[in-house]
Each structure stands twice: as structure tokens, then as C-alpha cells.
Specification:
Number of domains: 3
Shape: elongated
Number of strands: 18
Largest sheet: 14 strands, mixed
Oligomer: single chain
Helix content: 40-55%
Amino acid sequence: MHGASFSRLSPYTVSFVLVYFQVVLVRFLRFVTAFTLAFLVASPFAVAQEPVRTLFVGVAGIEAGNVSPGVLNALEGHGAALMNLHTRTSSPDTCPVDGWMSVRTPGNAVDYEGRQARGGVCRPFLDVIVEDEARTPGRAKVRDFEQITRGVKWPAEPAAGVGVGPGAALVLASQSGEVASWLPAPGRADELGAVVLQALRESHGNVFVDAGWDKAGMNAADPYGGPSDVADASGASATAGPTGLSVDEVNARIEAVLAAYAQFERQNPGTVRVVLASVGRSEPGPALQFGAVIDATTTEATSSATSTGAETSTTSLAPAPETATPGLFYSSATRSAGLATLGDVRDLVAGGPVQVEPKSVSAAHTQLMDEATHAMAARGSLTPFFAGWGAFLLIGVLAGLTHFVRKPAKDQAPAWIWRNIAVWNALAFAVVPAAMIANLVPWWRLSTNPLLPILLVFAIAAALLALARSSNQPVAVLAALTVLLVAVDIASGAHLQRDGFFGSMTLASRRFYGISNRSYVILLAAALIATLPWIADRFPDKRQEAARGVAAMGVGVLAIDALPFWGADFGGPAGIIAGFGIAYLMVRGIRPRWKHAAWWVLLTTVAMIFTGALDARSASPSHIGLFWKNFGSPETLTLVADKARDMATTFAGNPLILAAVAAAAILVVVGARFARKLFEPREGTKKLPADTHQEPPQTGEMDPAPSPNPHLETLREATPPGLAAVAAGIAVGALVAVPINDSGLLIVVDTVAIAAPALVSILARRLQISRTRCTESPRFAV
């Protein structure tokens, strides 16, 4: 009826409707565009103008918790943006020399020679040979430069600018260690401020200042710390810069440099950007370092800092100009405000844009200290947590396997034993989502004792399990919750996983957004397990529909993992497509063949090229987009070579790892072929549906004849539809990821630890349901 009336409309009426629709659509798009532009303009991440020059102030050993109030007041007076600095290069421990090299060059800038010569301890100072008069900027040379930078890809061209202090000489050095314009750093703070002011006035480029290293870096000749010596061409000694200072002394030197900048800024407003960065620490163990950036402004900032001759005295600074934007520095490398990397420092020194989340300096500093405390507490709790959780899940898995091997038959295994095994393993699996939820609770503010977060996680896990057990598929419910948590967290910036037990540790990770190797395993395993209820409801009559549900879940997981603005996982598509592909084929009842391997290669290639091209065209590309945008350049070729070396290092020289991977691959292939025959119902038998009670035999009836192999009969009875396909998909997805990621065999370990308790709990619950003739235990009531 409606179709007939519509067909009677005149062509003019149809044309009018189409034109009207186009006008409305254009206006709507205009509105959306205007709203988006207005939102970007009013966004809290204000983009500042590029400065003309940069004053880089480098130190070592200064953290948010020990930066002085005087430095914070000076930064607040100039509207600075603060940050915690993640200084990791190739190792979480970054020495001052490593950090200074990283200011100049990306990659693994590590002074291996210095650590090897001192038994793993950082090089305590740098020797600089002065070739010209030490009172004016002149030529110098970094002693042992070739040994220090051995293995580091140092730029061919020397950097331009004036350097003050030993670290600055390293930044400005050529490939031979030559420095064109350099000054030693005086020992007194006021004299250092005068030298910096002189360099700002007499030079027209960037100025690099080494304001001092913390007291853990001792001089070779002075075990109590003091200025390190350098030699000029005539053999006379000069002061390169104190490297064995207390934290208070380093803070005083920073204040003096900021006072010199304030004096220069009054006379030359809006011409200099200040970048302050603690580039490393001499003490063992990683810790977030302190950093700040003062962007150049057009409004003159007033200051009561005065200068008389060669001395600069520091007093309180006046309020910041209205154009200054204090707060937290937003890093595109970490996709968060307040956490930056040495790569961000390099970009800021080169004049890169400054994005700021507006906030008072005191509030920003408080947040930085809180995040630094969280990072340290999480790192200290990591080993005890995995020791406790690993022992807990090992007990549950071994209990299930042992009980199955010893007493597989119905009349040998009471239901309450299987019930307890199911609950125990389900609790071990519930720890995974509980650990992410626990990060919403600021437990580190109460205590940094490792016992507190461990107890909190297990308490949340118990609560989640209690809620999930109200359903017929508690493990599947927990798995679905885990997928939801991971997906939402990744889409929102991965803040929930950061410094969580199953997420990225701030002090050790290389990347802080998207999918980590452990997150990949969690997402893969939980997503496949979550499909079990869908498969069970449609198996065996609607196998094609069941397989489509698995494929749909795989597409969703692939999007979360691979899209650059979410997971940005370069190697993830290969494992996800392989894992869900195997599961899809097994649910459909299709035997895997070589043509399916060809389809896997094709789909993986298409997914990686699509996400890379999409990311490369974005305004702020991730590491994947930068790789494809610069594909073929020396940097990308070096990245590929480094990645290949990291993967080869995982296996080279370790035959046990190679044997373990080969054995696991053989087991997966053999198990997949055997599973199709094992879990097909035998002729004349009926497989137990999911979570249904089997009626006991009536009085006078005989029990069915025992199987010649009770273990196989019990497996056949306990395995729900699709479990073999899910297990195979998890195994294949993990094995494919092993050679692609630098974590290597750790991915297999994580997969077993995360998936095994869930699978054992599912089997134990099925066996518990089928044992109806046994006395029930009053504990762990269903």
C-alpha cells in the first residue's frame, strides 16, 4: 500500500524532497564543523606559539617530590607547564650521561662503556678538555667521547648553540666530540646565573646549561662529591660543573638560572623558551624525574631578580602575565597530561608546540607527586602480587588436573570437590578485571605497603565472582566484563591500566597508550571465552550462526587492538586474525587448510596497511603512523633492524625457548586435529547441554557401562560446545604473537596464567553439575 502511494508521486515532488534533504544535510555538516572548530579553539589544551630561542636547563636527580619551593615559585611566576619525565632509553635505569645523550639523539642512548667499567654504576662525571680561554665561550672536546657514545647513532652534524657545563658539552658535540662554543659551569650558584645571563645576551641561538647532578654521582678523586675537573690545552684545571651535589644545591642552581632568565626576559620579552628537565639519576632504580617548560610570551614578565656585575641574586618573582598558561604539559607521546618523555624534551628544545592542560602550578605539582608515588608503589608491589596470584592460580589449576587424573569417573568425584575447584579457579580469573578496577581506588595514598593493593584486588575479585555466580555462566560473565573494561580503557587513553598489575608500569614501559603485550593476551583470551554462551545456544543446529558470532567478536577486538586512535598495536592483527580465524573454522566444523593460511596473510596485510595509512594521514599520528609516513627512511630501517634484533635476542642462544615454542606449536596442531574427533558426540549418545542437570537413573535401572577410557569420557561429558575452538584460538593467537613482539615467550606465560584458570573453572563447573548423586558440601553453595 505504502509502496504504491509512493510510486504515484510526481517527479517534481521527488526532486524537491531530494533537494530539501541535501540542503538539510549540508547545513547539518556545517553545524558539526563549526561546533568541532569551536571545541578545538576552546579546548583546555591550549597551543602556544613557537619561540625564537630555547634555554635548556638540564639537571639530574630532581623529582617532583624534592623540587624546592623556590623553584616552584619561579616557575609559577612565569606560567610554567609542569611534567613528570619518563627518562627510560633501553633500560629503566637512566644515568645522567644517558639522559644528556637522549636530549640530542633518539633511540637507545646508553653509556654501556661507562657502566661496564664501573660494574653497572653510572659514570659519575664528564671530562671536558678546554681548548680556548675558559672565561668566554670557546672550543672544547669531550674526553672519551667515542667510548661514551659507542653503539649510539650520533647525528652527523653538530648542534648549534652555547653550552655551559659538562652535560651541555655532550649535547653540542660533533661525532668526534668537538664542541664549538662552550663554557665551564662555575661552582657557585650566583656565578652560574651570571654566566647564563651573559650567554643569553651575547649569543643569538639556543643556550644549554648543565645545572648539576645529584650527590649519588661522585667524582673519581673526591668520594664526598664536589666539582669535577677538566683540563685545558695547557694543562691548567678549570671547573666543568658540580656533579656531586645535594638536592638543595641543585635546586639553588636552578633558581639562579631562572633568575637570570627573568632578568633577560624583562629586557627581551617573548624571545626565549625555557625547558627544565631532570634527564636521569645516578642512584640505582628508576624514578620519574621533574620537568617544566616556560613558553615565550608577548607580555613582559616582571621580576625582582637583580644582577650586579658577575653576581645574580634571586628574590620572589612577580605574578605571571595574563598570556601565560600554567598547568600540566600534555604529551602526544603518552597521550596524557603531566607525563612526558625525553622525546618530548627534544621536541620542545627544537621549538615544538606546547600543549597545556590549564591548572595552577601548586595543583599541578600535587598531581605530579601523587602520580610519582603511585608509580613507585605499583612497581614495588608488582613482584609480590604476581608471586601471590601465581601461587593461587597454580594451586587451583593443579588441583583440577590432579583430581581429574586420579578420579575421573562419576562415582569417584563428589560434586562439592568440583564446585570448590570451579570457584577457586574462577576467583583466580576474576583477579584480572579486579586489578583494573582497583586502579580507581587511590590505595597508594594510604600506604605503599605491597600487601594493601594485593588484598584490595582479591577483595574486588571476590565481589565480582559473587555477582557473576548468579548467572549460569559465571566465567563467561567475568570474561565479558574484562573485555568491556579493556575496550573502554583503551578507547579513553589506557589510564585505567597504567600502573595496574596487568597494565603498563610507568617506570618500565616504553609506551603508555594503546595495547600492551599483556593487554593483548587479556583481550584475546577474554573475548574468545565470552563467546561460549553464544556458541552453546546455537550448537550444533546453528553452527554457521554460532561461527558468525565468533567472527563478529573478532572484528570488534581487531578494531580495538589495531585502530591507531585506540589500541595502535602494530603486530596485534596477525595474532587476532589467526586466533579468531581458527576458532571460526572449528565452530563451523571446517578443517583448516593451506588456503586458510593464505587468507590469514592477506587479511593481516590489509589490516596493517589500512590502519597505517589511516594513522599516517592524521594530524597527530601514533608510532604506527610515523613509521608508515617515513617508510623507507634511515630511521624506519633502523627501527625495523632494532625490532628484528630484539626478537632474535629472545630466541638466539637459548635452545630451551626454541624447544618450548616448537613443542607448543606441535601440541596446538595435534590437539586441534584430535579435538574434532574427541569432542564430537559418539553415535547413540547425547552430549550434556551447557549448565543443565542430568537426571539420575531411576530405581532399578542399571548404570551405563563404563567407558574403557574414563578420562576421555569425562572430557567428552564436561566440554561445552565451542570450548575446544576457544582454547585453540587462544593458543594460536598467543603463538603467532611470540615472534612478532619483543616480549617473546612471556606472552605464552601470560596466556597460560590468564586463560588456564578460566578453562579449568568451566570444566569443573560442568563436572560439578553432572555429579548429582553425591552429598553436597555446605560450603560454596551455588
